[in-house]
Q: What sequence folds into this?
């Protein structure tokens, strides 16, 4: 065994090298896994995150007002009122705070509720005049119905209308409602261009996907100042 020298690895820095090798052996697969998850998540967001007119539900037979509420007269003579799908796609999940109680008289264009998302509020105006009858208990108990099913389970109030024909004759119905919604999305893009020039140095990262499409729920990431401007331009009386 001449010329052979034995070294005890535990008496040298060899154990440190083994520890480093073991660390990277664990870290690298985890890092690859993590990168793949981030990439897949980003791809999914790009695939389903764009807000286009085709994503919006516009049921036939509902009357849509220009302040993004809808109303529908039932056979009983009672009208349901709710928020349109576009407004809910723009804001994201919201809580609603009704400002009226059963028996209250309301006028068209009067404040009947506020919706709230992360401390930011929007005022909701009534599309018709009438007697406030009730709110939707499903929505009261779980506001998620507003976004999940705004027209069937997610209606918000029942009202006994006073001037149904006179107050709904300028509203959007069927194909005209679809055309109006498409124009409103385009108008919202123009609105963002103006607002973001005022409030943000880099709006593209927040609002638009490649190709200039809107992201779903764009308002949810924007500051209170933009919400106030949106309320004035899209939800107020005109």
A:
């Amino acid at each position: 065994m001449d010329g052979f020298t034995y070294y005890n690895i535990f008496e040298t820095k060899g154990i440190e090298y083994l520890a480093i090798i073991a660390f990277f052996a664990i870290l690298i697969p985890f890092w690859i896994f993590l990168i793949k998850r981030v990439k897949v998540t980003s791809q999914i967001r790009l695939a389903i995150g764009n807000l286009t007119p085709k994503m919006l539900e516009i049921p036939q037979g509902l009357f849509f007002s220009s302040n993004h509420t809808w109303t529908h007269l039932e056979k009983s003579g009672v009208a349901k009122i709710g928020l349109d799908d576009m407004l809910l796609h723009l804001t994201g999940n919201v809580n609603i705070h009704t400002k009226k109680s059963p028996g209250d008289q309301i006028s068209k264009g009067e404040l009947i509720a506020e919706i709230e998302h992360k401390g930011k509020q929007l005022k909701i105006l009534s599309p018709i005049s009438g007697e406030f009858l009730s709110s939707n208990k499903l929505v009261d108990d779980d506001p998620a119905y507003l976004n999940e099913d705004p027209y069937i389970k997610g209606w918000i109030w029942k009202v006994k209308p006073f001037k149904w024909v006179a107050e709904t004759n300028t509203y959007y119905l069927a194909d005209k409602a679809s055309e109006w919604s498409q124009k409103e999305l385009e108008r919202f893009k123009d609105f963002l261009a103006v607002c973001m020039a005022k409030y943000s140095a880099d709006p593209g990262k927040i609002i638009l996907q490649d190709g200039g499409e809107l992201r779903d729920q764009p308002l949810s990431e924007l500051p209170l100042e933009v919400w106030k401007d949106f309320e004035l331009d899209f939800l107020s009386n005109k």
In short: Residues 33-48 have pLDDT under 50 and may be disordered. Helices lie at 14-48, 85-91, 137-141, 144-148, 164-168, 175-199, 204-207, 224-235.
